Amino acid sequence: MSRILIIEDEAAIRRVLSKILSEESDSYVVDEAENGEEGIEKIKSEEYDLIICDIKMPRKDGEEVIQEAKKIKPEIPFIMISGHGDLETAVNTMRLGAFDYISKPPDLNRLLTTVRNALDKKSLVVENKRLKKKVGKNYQMIGESEPIQHIKQMIDKVAETDARVLITGPNGTGKELVAHNLHEKSNRSAYPLIEVNCAAIPSELIESELFGHVRGAFTSAVKDRAGKFEAADKGTIFLDEIGDMSLSAQAKVLRALQENIITRVGADKDIKIDVRVIAATNKDLRKEIEEGRFREDLYHRLAVILINVPSLNDRRSDIPMLIEHFIQKIATENGNTPKRISADALELLQEYNWTGNIRELRNVVERLIILGGQEITKSDVQMFASK
């Protein structure tokens, strides 16, 4: 069933619209409000799949209604109804997020088609959120230790801002999880998170990878190509291992952060971008600055918010929870029943020196599942988890 709210001060038009929609489909449940204030109260207290709203109304006009409603429930599509003299205002409501507008008196076929399209869009938005929530489980941060609780609190405070974040910590600690959580909880989550591993791209190609190139810029540039910054427009770019970026690429990244402008390799034309930047490194960038390998001005641009991810040895209380998580995850991936693990096996694993951090722990758990018995025991750990 789709619930539709009609906000219209003219009773005759409300009745006509309600009759048309009710006769069109048994799955449409139609509610009415005779002015903008009543409409806002209904939106606050009820769940609707679509709002059909007049523009010129007493007490609150359509522009005010859509602005307030989008703050309360931003996913609800609006169809605006406008008189002949309201077209300029109707176009403005599109800028405010309306799905469409229809002139009075409404054309029956146009109205019903627009309603169906708007409801289809709402369904896609809901499904997209459900899938994102499902996918987001792959990026959940496991643990209840004090360092992890602090990171989760930092993410909640920072995520909805556009502040740049520099994530530090040893290899294998889960810095990318912090980046994904920041993006998923941000206002940019509907747009892409583009990941770039700066250490994996040769220094001579990093500028092309980040900023794109035009045909003929270098030997293998046979056609124009957009870079990662363009791909991340309105979303987030995650620059992993930024401490390995060349100084020439650093200079271009600095310009992008200062001016929100990039230039493709070999081009003269500037491209405006709207991108949030999250960076990560396992290096001591202060030391890199002292030794001339990293720009201090870029560091200060990136490090608006600093989040340090601790080593696994510094959060040993989380190890049993992480092991249980990996046992369940690996069993699900392979379609198997999760194995049990004995208390003394868990205790022994907590005492290990995890130089490879969570990545190493995951590998050890998988090895124990494959090579151990039906229950993973202390002797299994002693035999198969050795360094």
Automatic annotation (TrEMBL):
Pfam families listed in its UniProt record: AAA_lid_14, Response_reg, Sigma54_activat
PROSITE patterns on file: RESPONSE_REGULATORY (PS50110), SIGMA54_INTERACT_2 (PS00676), SIGMA54_INTERACT_4 (PS50045)
Modified residues (4-aspartylphosphate): 54
Database matches in InterPro entries: AAA+_ATPase, AAA_lid_NorR, CheY-like_superfamily, P-loop_NTPase, Sig_transdc_resp-reg_receiver, Sigma_54_int, Sigma_54_int_dom_ATP-bd_2
Keywords, in A-Z order: ATP-binding, Nucleotide-binding, Phosphoprotein
Annotated ranges, domain Sigma-54 factor interaction: 141-370
All residue ranges annotated as the Response regulatory domain in the record: 3-119
Protein name: Sigma-54 dependent transcriptional regulator
Naturally occurring in which organism (per UniProt): Paenimyroides ceti
